[in-house]
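User: Quick one: structure for sequence A, then sequence B.

Assistant: Sequence A:
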Amino acid sequence: MKNIISYSALFGLFFCLQVFIFNRLEIGFGAQIFILPLFLMILPFETNVFGLMTLGFLLGISVDAFSNTYGLNASSLVLFAYLRPIVFESFRPREGYDPLKIPTASDMGWDWFLVVFGILFVSSLLWYFVWEIFRFAEILLVLRNLFMSVLVSAVAIGISQFFFFNERKKK
């Protein structure tokens, strides 16, 4: 029960941060800060794909309703949620995932987190920008927006991993 309440609070926090702060920032060069995929990433390893996709859709469509993006966030988060178990299985340790750990940099290590989250994050953002621009002639614009958004989002996500999801080891 405690986990459901804490993940519900995180759902609300990520929604509010994206809608009321990050969507309002004008960074330039097509850069946007996306922190929504981090919510799906930090859910427990044993979360099934249908639950992930449902949460991704609900979070995405909620942000889309306030951002006038007409399903872009919802579709990119559903893609992230669909690919998550596949990528997790590809990078699974030999002994399997520890059920007491969650997929954060502090629990799994920065190397694992950067590779796994990077693959999922770039995939979902590429999907987002391809559908946002929706012209093959503008592929350079898609790639510029993708690169700049990954850059600024990585800073925001790295800061969140370092400060908020970094559990201090008790001595």
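Sequence B:
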Amino acid sequence: MAKHIVIDIETLGRRNDAAITQIGIVPADENFDVLDRYLIQAEPKTWNTCERTFTGETLLWWIQQKNSPESNKPHIVHSYKFLVDKLYQIFNRYNTEDTIVWTKGAMDLFCIKDICEYLNMEAPWKFWQPRDIRTAKEFIKEWKTFENNNHNALDDALNQLRELKANLIER
């Protein structure tokens, strides 16, 4: 079981109903040490299903990046239903009543919750579990950051876990 689960997503927009391209998930113990790591990639033909949206601004931003919203090393899902099912598998394995679910900003969980609601499913976390890394940064002076501009959901989640450990445990 995990004390912490860090989630990062990549999308094609900035709304709750944005097309999700990737989800990175890193369960960790009480010292923020990695227990496992997952990269779930929604197949491109999935992006335009379940009433997901795109924005031209985000598509142009992706074109300017050194990588694409796809990865060559993920667990690929062929529908958003399979994506949510995979999330449930991970949460069923690692989540407890005491697990803290971390994201960098609220949008990531709102996007996942939106697709769960579209599929008539509950989000795999309890309402009291989410925490925002950006809020923690507000309270800790001189928050240590580590450079990471890969825009890969798993790499970003691992980097966020590294920051949490550096600032909440190693200080």
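The chain has a mean pLDDT of 88. The radius of gyration is 15 Å.

User: Thanks, that's what I needed.
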